[in-house]
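Q: I'm writing up a methods section and want to include an example of the input and output format. Could you take the sequence below and give the corresponding predicted structure tokens, formatted cleanly so I can copy it straight into the document?
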Amino acid sequence: MREIKTAYRRLARKHHPDVNREDQSPARDFAQIALAYRTLSNPEERERYDKQRQNLAWKSESSVMNSNNPHARRMRRVAVQRRWDAAVDRWMEAERRENQHRTQAVFTTVSLFLSIFMVALFKPRIWEEMGDIGRLVVLTLFVIGLCHIALRIRDSFQRYTYKATDASSVIEAEEHTTKPFARTTASAFLILGYAVSFGLGLLASKYVYPTLLVDMAFFFGNKVRPDMLFYPPIAVLLVDTMHTVATKIDSY
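A: Here is the clean output for your methods example:
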């Protein structure tokens, strides 16, 4: 009974409609999972279900697939092989998708912290040197990059974080066993990483600017300006786009 309950909680968390709001199929899967749990956890329903399975098995004993002739045995081997191949293909595809999502989460986070560090280090004067059209392009890319980062962070939070609250449902009770980080911890990591990256960039600029960048003051500044906020999302957008294109090219 404990194994049934554990399996139900794991599958219910994975296929719950609240976790897969953009897809309608998990709602049907969740209803089937709930029905299966009610059937298997109720002794009377379980007995009725077992009898139905026995009746179906008895009726199928006379079929060609259950005979002992060579043709039937070959058909059974082919059917079993197909099921195993399909199961392996599904597992490999699921593993590939999981690795892809994990890589995206790490790549986006590292790109964000690195771009913040570089902007704080060099303090590019792109905004000051551009006209109205150029500034409009920068603002557009900034908005797109900001939305891109927000979507990536939301996807990563849904996949790898859980709410650190008192469990009030099966879903919340099991999330911490399958997701590695609390949502508050992940949020604190992003905020702290942003601050540390910016601080390290400012610290390094005190040593780099007087020796290397002073001769390029027309492009690199030495003061913190509001327009510096525009550049990290744009850098992450460009880097993620190039990484996605390179990944697709390698997969062909």
